[in-house]
Amino acid sequence: MQTTLTRRKTEVSSFVLKSIGLFLLFAVLPLLLFFPSKTHAADYLTVSGCSISNVGYLTELADEYEKRTGVKVFVRGGGSVVGIEDLRSGKVDFAASCRPRDAGDPADITYIQVAWDALAFIVHKSNPVENVTLDEVRSIYAGRMTDWRQLKGREAPIKIFISRTKKGLSGVEASTKQLVLNGKEPVETANTVFVASSGIVEQMVEENPEGFATTGITSARKRNVKILKVNGIAPTNKAIINNRYPLKRPLFLLVPKNPKPEVIKFVDFTLGKAGQRFIRSLNVIPIQDVK
After folding, report:
1. Hey, how many other C-beta atoms are within 10 angstroms of the C-beta on 284?
2. What element of type H or E holds 120?
3. Do 41-117+249-289 and 118-248 share a fold?
4. What pTM value is reported for the model?
5. Domain extents for the chain?
6. What gap in Å lies between CA 122 and CA 225, rounded to an integer?
7. Which of 108, 109, 167, 234 has an alpha carbon 20 to 30 Å from 99's alpha carbon atom?
8. How does pLDDT run across 149-188, given as a tens digit for each residue?
9. Looking at the domain that runs over 118-248, which CATH code has it been given?
10. Which CATH class is domain 41-117+249-289?
């Protein structure tokens, strides 16, 4: 009887130990998968920032880089301001921006231009309007032009979508203020809608027949929207390169003061012949194409 009791205690103890072991395995394994070990820290990079860059070229460039090197690059959007803040706080290894350095940006971040973009004015696919002048765009943002009839479209209010961050100007808003609005702020009307990033702006115009917005041509081409001509000139790469289309602007990668060696390798790839050729294959203007 003593032997039987001892055997049962042993079996119970063995069962408990196995149960604890299985619990720890299933509890810890997901954490190990989610948080890569330091041994493999060099096998991935993180980047956030400019939605136009991410949609237009960076996500696909990151995939191409992984194919060539085995190094995974995790790309997250959020806008230029988010990228700068993430880089400042050490949340990412590098960032993307579609605006030049601002007075409030950290001094130890280096801006490296890798491509060219241009501001583009987008509307819903169903909108019959094909062309807009810069003066008409200024009138829209000033609240003087409020109905699509004024642009020879259908009778409907012009619903303006603007990317605006909680801290600082977004890349598109800063560029619009500089290149289009002569330094002025857009007038807020009943039909002005502010959203967090240019990616959301583009999605809103895709869904709203009355929508109008300014964004970057690099990502606009990837969306289901109509891109308007400006003063009769379509924003083709040739027209942008030759300055016939008037709203050209740079795209940057941002690196911290002491970047990881793998960040330097990624930037070198982006600026090299293979990276620039790949960017061109995405219908994006590499810096090599502008003299």
Report:
1. 27
2. strand 110-123
3. yes
4. 0.83
5. 41-117+249-289, 118-248
6. 6
7. 234
8. 999 999 999 999 998 876 666 889 999 999 999 999 999 9
9. 3.40.190.10
10. alpha beta
